[in-house]
Specification:
Structural class: mainly alpha
Radius of gyration: 17 Å
Number of helices: 8
Number of strands: 0
Shape: globular
């Protein structure tokens, strides 16, 4: 994606990633349970939609984050469906699946980081890694990983306690690593994976909690509205020049 279409890594960005992780969990479940397309047709349709967004992004010269966040939503929706299929249909052991996904994310992130290193000199602090094909593979892997690990945490702790524990972990990770996320790709992807995992637990709790009892459609509407409202009402910071980058 073009730099003018990419958000800055700041508190607003991580708020968006967290909310879209919750929304994407609900959206993925609603997409699968309502349309009954199956994983292959369902993911194929999402792939076509993502391709259309990328095509429009390449044609656009307007400075907007719309394309980035649309792809994030599509990828997160697809990741929820893929994770459920691998864990509950193919029955891949969750530990093996989680480790395999972590390796996939690491490999894709390293490839993206090495490609981006050639163009990193002079870029402002807060700049996202290059959003090339390897970046989106890593983002998809992080979504699948977060769904699998979030489900495991909810199973052992309960959705409420898992949401609280993972939310606290995410807050600590952001406080500790937010300043290094744009300069150290390991910190960036670690926080994305934690946000995806937290979003799974919180999204499932909100949709399935018997006390609140709002159900999946209303939960999806609420989390989607919260995500869009946050991006529209919260103005992001401008990238800051980092002297260490030249």
């Amino acid at each position: 994606m073009k730099r003018k279409h990419m958000p800055v890594i700041d508190w607003r960005y991580w708020g968006g990633i967290t909310l879209v992780s919750i929304f994407g969990t609900n959206m993925g479940d609603l997409y699968a349970h309502t349309l009954h397309l199956g994983v292959y047709l369902g993911v194929a349709i999402l792939t076509v939609l993502a391709s259309i967004v990328f095509w429009q992004e390449r044609k656009s010269d307007r400075s907007t984050e719309l394309f980035y966040w649309l792809v994030i939503i599509i990828v997160r929706t697809g990741a929820t469906n893929i994770a459920d299929y691998l864990a509950f249909r193919v029955h891949i052991p969750q530990l093996l699946l989680s480790c395999g996904l972590a390796l996939l994310i690491a490999l894709a992130a390293v490839i993206s980081a090495r490609r981006g290193a050639r163009h990193a000199i002079g870029l402002p602090r807060g700049t996202l890694p290059p959003t090339d094909a390897a970046y989106w593979v890593a983002m998809l892997g992080a979504g699948v990983f977060g769904t699998v690990v979030g489900d495991v945490a909810s199973h052992f702790l309960g959705e409420g306690y898992a949401s609280l524990a993972l939310g606290a972990l995410l807050a600590l990770a952001l406080a500790a690593g937010r300043g290094t996320a744009s300069r150290w790709f390991v910190a960036y992807w670690a926080m994305v994976m934690i946000a995806r995992t937290t979003g799974t637990a919180m999204g499932d709790w909100l949709a399935e909690n018997k006390v609140v009892d709002i159900g999946l459609p209303v939960s999806t509407l609420m989390t989607g509205t919260a995500f869009v409202a946050m991006l529209m009402l919260w103005r992001g910071t401008k990238p800051q020049h980092d002297p260490a980058r030249g």
